[in-house]
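User: My collaborator sent over this chain with a note saying "see what the structure looks like." That's all I know about it. Can you take a look?
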Amino acid sequence: MVRNPPKHIPFPSKGEILAFINENPGKVGTREIARAFNLKNDRRIELKRLLRELADEGQVEARRKKLHKSGGLPEVTLADVTGRDSDGELIATPTEWDEDEHGPVPKIRIATPRKARPHEVAGVGDRALLRIQENRDDDVRYSGRVIKIIDKAKTRAIGIFRAMPGGGGRLVPVDKKQLGKELTIPRDATKDAKDGDLIAVQVQPQRFGLPVARVEERLGSLKTERAVSLIAIHAHGIPHVLPVAAEAEAHAARPATLEGREDWRKLALVTIDPVDAKDHDDAVHAAPDPDPANPGGHIITVAIADVAHYVRPGSALDREAVKRGNSVYFPDRVVPMLPERISNDLCSLRPREDRAALAVRMIIGKDGRKKSHTFHRVLMRSAAKLNYQQAQAAIGGAPDEDTSPLLDSVLRPLYDAYDALKRAREARGPLDLDLPERKILLKHDGTVDRVITPERLESHRLIEEFMILANVAAAETLEQARVPLIYRVHDEPSLEKIEALRKFLETLHISLPKGGALRAEQFNRILDRVKGQDVEKLVNEVVLRTQAQAEYAADNYGHFGLNLRRYAHFTSPIRRYADLIVHRGLIRARKFGDGGLPESQDHAALAEIAAEISACERRAMKAERETNDRLIAHFLSDRIGATFEGRISGVTRAGLFIKLDDTGADGFVPARTIGSEYFRYEEDLHAMVGSRSGETHRLGDRVTVKLVEAAPVAGALRFELLSEGRMAARPQPRPSGKSRPERRREKRYGQRRR
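Assistant: Without extra context I'll predict from the sequence alone. Here is the result:
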């Protein structure tokens, strides 16, 4: 990578530096450039200044502490094969690409080796993990080599069966992108499907006319929640049927014994989880530190189910787990990463039952800062299974029969240690956004009962801080042992998004410092400044949209939101594959015996796994969100014409997105239906502004809307805006005594007359 230049060379030009970055995409940072051009001492300061200029000009960007040409792709990219070029070569585009941030979606020409193995041969419609190289003299900017095929082209579709006279029928797709593209189902291929059934079909393309589909499975009536969650499972290709080999391995597993483990069964570890939790994979304990050199300090212990003991590298269980990446949670069901025999039985830390665990014992000072830590492979026995409300009530003076015996010996020491961790958190200054999440509660028949916003308790924060501390300890241990790992990383906001935020805040008379990287605490000052004001939710939303998306990576570039230099997921290997990799790394690093990270899983191999499971995480988030949208749309479908209170949650050229207060449902107001004049989109203001009156509808504004359409299959709601917007300083007079709909009808009638 380094050019080995002579000892004394002139200071490089911008063009030379850009050329060097392009030759080594994703591999160079300031240190590598300085070494390549033999820049030392004050010349390095000049180099940093020049790199800042290139960044300000939009020619380079920092990603994972390495420099790339702006808008460039990482070395390992998940991509979709979209077609072929004029020479018949495959063309792909990155699966995840932010056009607002990086510009037009780049194309990737896929190079197929002459002696390609089956897993390296892609086809149109496939999703593949590619190793990327930038082309310097080509009309297609990137070439890619297939590392692994993630998903083959879909020949399966789901939708609603519509019976046709005389037999047979058509499939109406449930995917929003496929609405209007129906498939023909011959009379001998319906599998007795009834009109309105939700079905899965095998698609068979035809030379002429519509593709033909054969019914594979009747999934039930769309009126049941089970069908709604299955829509998301099938639409996103979430693996949900366990292979026979993996099922057999799970059933053959036997509980771990004390062999090769420390006996921690007398330590009063407890689990604290949501009321409806089905598995309990983390337990905690705290006690005052008896060391006189650490007055006011604490010993915190976090024990995590030893999933690595049961799921060995390369096993059928392991292959299925990496394919799933994580568990997916719907209101009525979980699609688990691991079978219930593992997740809900052998690795669930049940009270008074022996369980295998990996534990970390951490010593913190009075100020909450970690002084030291050690990892242990143990056999433990949980003293109690508590929920968040129980723990909080006990500390608040209302213990029950479960918590009363534990109040002084277990719970008070936990909260004392948490008080110290709070001080450390405040000193660290992580990003502190106030965006409460809603939860859908179902009736016994699977339909929506109500939507609630669970209260955020101190007990939630206690477990959160204990887990963060344990995750940091895991990353530190693996780094010190030089064992490769998968980090949980969160990049700092891009320059473009920071500049957009600065312009927006100026409209609220809030200044954002120019130049230099922003820290999480600077965002917190802004959030504190607007707390309790009308614009509080608006600013929280805009700050959230400024942030990058957290992901998994084999390279560490820190966690911006938590304001941590190194961070890895260790605390939930039952539901996240990244955590299982970290557990295996710790077993290898600490020489804990079987189940450690294989030597073959080096940095390059983990980079591929990180890209794959990051995509699985995004897939799960999208499936969960779409399922909630469909459930709420079904819940509200019999309330057409009703009015609701809500808030503008998004603004685009097409119109306004509205989030309702009571259900959290998201719906849309098309721009053409707003007001009695033309409304233009003002990106800097996150607003739609009337061209004549200056009437403004801005992100975060409170509104009243009327529901005019609900499409449960697509999870879509359409609203009519009833509220007046904010007015300009000198608004044009409006017709008096007439409602907004009346003015709109007059406007349209007048247009027709003209």
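A starting point for your reply to your collaborator: Residues 492-547 form one domain.
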